[in-house]
Amino acid sequence: MMYDAEELTKAAATGNTVRVQFLLSEGVNVNSFNRFGRTPIQVMMMGNTPLAHLLLEHGADPNLPDPGTGSTPLHDAARTGFLDTLKLLIHFSADPKATDNNNLRPVDVAEQTGNLDVVEFLNRF
After folding, report:
1. How does the average pLDDT of the chain come out, rounded?
2. What is the DSSP letter of 47?
3. Please, which pLDDT band fits residue 76 given cuts at 50, 70 and 90?
4. In sequence order, what are the residues at sequence separation of 6 or more whose Cβ sits closer than 8 angstroms to the Cβ of residue 117?
5. CATH of the domain at 43
6. Which of 23, 42, 55, 80 sits 20 to 30 Å CA-CA off 4?
7. Buried (b) or exposed (e) across 64-91, using 16+ Cβ within 10 A?
8. Segments forming the whole domain that contains residue 56
């Protein structure tokens, strides 16, 4: 049976790490786009660090911008305040200086949403 990007992004979005692992083992491209032009790491719940680690270990690109907003997964982690996921993304080469369509960096987004621990961490870059 052939599996596709829709299934992988749905599994990532719902936090189904076991299903994501299975689909990756079946050869679904970790950077494939769903019908909305988004990849699994772009749609995953940012608080699910084990899932983020799984995707990144399989080569997920943490710097692909969202087609609508220009936000990267690092912007999303900064906005939602998930410092562990944010640190993991940076460990896997996410660019802390990337800007979205409003010319905001992840640190700017964290400031706007009051995630001061994230701001403090990102100010090191």
Report:
1. 95
2. T
3. very high
4. 81, 83
5. 1.25.40.20
6. 80
7. bbbeeeebbbbbbbbbbbbbebbebbbe
8. 5-122
